[in-house]
Write a structure and sequence with these properties.
Helix content: 40-55%
Strand content: 5-15%
Number of helices: 6
CATH architecture of the largest domain: Orthogonal Bundle
Number of strands: 3
Radius of gyration: 17 Å
Distance between the termini: 44 Å
């Protein structure tokens, strides 16, 4: 398969071949399952948050990494960015319908993990 064939194939109505190196779905999977992408999606599952509230909800993430992760997830169509024209501008982040669809099984995964962990951690 030539480079770019995955995109043409998906446009024709067939499924992506996710194990192919030029499959666009691979990039989205990489972004969702990145160190911080998964935490952003989980944090936004319940409600929309402004940048600093989102940063505070994800312990250990730097402002730089949060900004990069949000930019990527917005480009992927998983997160929406709403800017209110105030001084300074107020920016709120929330999940798109696509982001909600992906966030639900991630939340289920975390629920299963935390329910199965012993009180003393993994094991």
């Amino acid at each position: 398969m030539r480079e770019g064939a995955q995109l043409r194939q998906a446009e024709a109505g067939t499924r992506y071949e996710v194990f192919h190196t030029d499959c666009p779905a691979r990039d989205v999977v990489d972004h969702v399952t990145s160190k911080w992408g998964i935490w952003v999606l989980i944090s936004l599952r319940s409600n929309d948050l402004r940048f600093h509230a989102l940063r505070d909800s994800i312990q250990g993430i730097s402002e730089k990494m949060l900004a990069q992760t949000l930019r990527t997830l917005v480009q992927d169509g998983l997160v929406r960015r709403e800017v209110e024209p105030t001084t300074p501008p107020q920016v709120t982040y929330g999940l798109t319908e696509f982001g909600q669809d992906l966030g639900e099984p991630l939340t289920d995964l975390f629920d299963r993990i935390t329910q199965r962990l012993s009180p003393h951690g993994a094991g």
